[in-house]
Amino acid sequence: MIDNLTLYKFFLQVAKSGSISSAARQLYVTQPAVSSGIMQLESALNAKLFFRTSRGITLTPEGELLYEYVNSGLSFLEAGEDKLRDISGLNGGLMRIGASDMTLKFFLLDHIESFNSKYPNVKLTVSNNPTPQTIKSLKNGQIDFCVISDPVERDDDVTFVPVRPIRDIVICKNSKRYEHLVNRGVDFEELAKNNTLVMLERGTSTRSYINNFLHEQEAPNKFFEPEIELAQSDLILEFVKRGLGVAFIVEDFAKEAIEAGVISEVKLRNPVPTRKFLLGYLNKIPLSAAAKKFIAEITGG
């Protein structure tokens, strides 16, 4: 195969224009360069490609055969280049996102909607899994980046960028039964006493964060073996609305119900420290143009 693609470009332009001088003008090169290129191509292929006459240049039978392949081949290459330019210009391509329920519902959905309205030709796939599984998918190359919540273990292969603070609170039903827990500082001994505790199941980042905090506070053992463990924060909210216990929950899940007066926040003497939503991507894997743009919009650059 000829290594120099320029020789084929010279050949194609001469065949189309029927003149070396005209081809040189179209290609913005000198006439000797085109003549030399055609001679090199004929020598490399061991075939005469053009008849030179007083009327100009025409293709030989061998040249006509080669012309069909070169014309198609260069057209495909140009189409491929155009497609790549489209992708780089966000007129195509694919972006794969991983997220937990919480980050998707309270953070990512707004950004995805905005991005999709601006760049509708970028195909989006979203994987919705707990944080540990999402990070595993990132490291396995199944997603381009992820948005998860604290805590995460330090990983030299992944860069994590804070994108939004979140707050964990304790909630109860807004009723006479729980009024003694509202509007004053409650310690963990009192919270655990005579109250059913509702928490996310183990293995989630939220449960790990709450457990670490409670260990530091030397909270009663009851917190680490709660009566009710659920897989989703939405279900925790429903249990609390029905007066079935008090629960740790991320404030975003409870905000609407608190504003509606259905539930109340229990004021703790030692509140749970604020944590963050984190955007994570692999350090050594280049991001697509679409992913770069999306991340820039989320992080402000």
Describe the structure.
- The protein is an alpha/beta fold.
- It has 3 domains: 5-88, Arc Repressor Mutant, subunit A (Orthogonal Bundle); 94-165 and 276-299, D-Maltodextrin-Binding Protein, domain 2, CATH 3.40.190.10; 168-273, D-Maltodextrin-Binding Protein, domain 2, CATH 3.40.190.
- Helix content is 46%, strand content 21%.
- Strands 4-3-5-12-6 form a 5-stranded mixed sheet, sandwiched between helices. A 5-stranded mixed sheet has the order 9-8-10-7-11, sandwiched between helices. It has a two-stranded antiparallel ribbon with strand order 1-2.
- Strand 3, helix 5 (101-118) and strand 4 (123-128) form a beta-alpha-beta unit.
- The longest helix has 28 residues, at 61-88.
- The two termini are 45 Å apart.
CATH class of the largest domain: Alpha Beta
What do we call the CATH homologous superfamily of the largest domain?
Periplasmic binding protein-like II
| Mean model confidence by pLDDT | 90
Instruction: Determine the structural class based on helices, strands and strand pairing.
Output: alpha/beta
What is the CATH fold-level name of the largest domain?
Answer: D-Maltodextrin-Binding Protein, domain 2
C-alpha termini separation? 45 Å
Largest sheet strand order? 4-3-5-12-6
Low-confidence stretches: none
Series of H and E elements: HHHEEHEHEHEEEHEHEHEHEEH
- Count of distinct strands: 12
**What is the alpha-carbon Rg in Å?**
33 Å
| Tally of individual domains | 3
Give helix % range: 40-55%
Outline the fold blueprint.
Elements: H1 5-17, H2 20-27, H3 31-45, E1 50-53, E2 56-59, H4 61-88, E3 94-99, H5 101-118, E4 123-128, H6 131-139, E5 145-149, E6 158-166, E7 168-173, H7 188-192, E8 197-200, H8 205-216, E9 228-230, H9 233-241, E10 246-250, H10 251-259, E11 263-266, E12 275-282, H11 289-299
Parallel strand pairs: 3-4, 3-5, 8-9, 8-10
Antiparallel strand pairs: 1-2, 5-12, 6-12, 7-10, 7-11
Helix pairs in contact: 1-2, 1-3, 1-4, 2-3
